[in-house]
Amino acid sequence: MKLALLFLGLAAAYLLIGWLVSFPIRFRSYTLSSPKIKAPVRLAVVSDLHSTVYGPDQKRLLDKLRQSRCDLILMPGDIIDDIKPLQGAEMFLDQVSAIAPCYYCTGNHENIETLITLPEVKARVRQAGITVLDKTRETITIRGTKLTLCGVDDPRKYAYIDRDQQEEVQLMNELGSMQDCPEYTILLAHRPERSPIYAQFGFDLIVSGHAHGGQVRIPGLINGLFAPRQGWFPKRAGGLYREQNSDLVVSRGLCQRWYLPRIYNPVEIPVIEITPILK
């Protein structure tokens, strides 16, 4: 009996510590290289905020982003939530473009349309000075390096019935192949489980969210317990992966919900440094 109580006490303490360490926003750093890059480029990823508030006027989140010294901020969806009040997302959106140029694609919760319709979401994001990538591409230059940024809307309207995924393939066909693109190409797409489709189109980097880090982790043993549309022990819960010839970075996101505690799964801002390949 004493051993059982001791075991339960230790398990409870382990879970409590795991819950507490998941609150502070952390940077997660990745370094990639490419012959298409002439000078280092730094990207910060803000995903799955779900209108979570980080201090008065989103100060903690915005201060953390400033510390990243990023050249661009990429937002692969679910900045706005379908249940939480919009104010948390709006406080963030209205200030973030002052830090660095921002690029955004929609997530599944921004397609649910309970508090705000999808066209209203896009209009609100654009009003804040953020570029919405919805089956579009944009080429920019940073310190002599050209980047082509692309994005697609989240396919929520058919994601639960489209077994062969042909509609999403059609979306990607409309965006166009990047196989022969001379610039470094980046795709913003919310769902990492769809990355095998995206990688067929030749992107150098794919940036996603959605998985929330698998919600519960056991460091060194389980990278994620459960993720939407991936199920138990998801393959792409959070981190850097190689998908065919593309790099895939999956953000663990910034969502905090009391009824879905994160365990050993800190909220995060991935920071991706892309460097030249020296000859």
Key traits:
6-stranded mixed beta sheet; metal ion binding; Metallo-depent_PP-like; Purple Acid Phosphatase, chain A, domain 2; globular; hydrolase; 279 residues; alpha/beta; Calcineurin-like_PHP
Topology:
Layout: H1 2-20, E1 26-34, E2 41-45, H2 59-67, E3 72-75, H3 87-96, E4 102-104, H4 118-127, E5 131-132, E6 136-142, E7 145-151, H5 156-159, H6 166-175, E8 184-188, H7 195-199, E9 205-208, E10 226-227, E11 231-232, E12 239-243, E13 246-250, E14 268-276
Parallel strand pairs: 1-14, 2-3, 3-4, 4-5, 7-8, 8-9, 9-13
Antiparallel strand pairs: 2-14, 6-7, 10-11, 12-13
Count up the domains.
1
CATH fold descriptor: Purple Acid Phosphatase, chain A, domain 2
Percent in strands: 15-25%
SSE pattern, N- to C-terminal: HEEHEHEHEEEHHEHEEEEEE
CATH architecture: 4-Layer Sandwich
Q: Biggest β-sheet, characterized?
A: 6 strands, mixed
Q: Tell me the strand order in the biggest sheet.
A: 1-14-2-3-4-5
Q: Identify the overall geometry.
A: globular
Give the averaged pLDDT, no decimals.
Answer: 89
**Termini separation:** 66 Å
Protein structure class: alpha/beta
Number of helices: 7
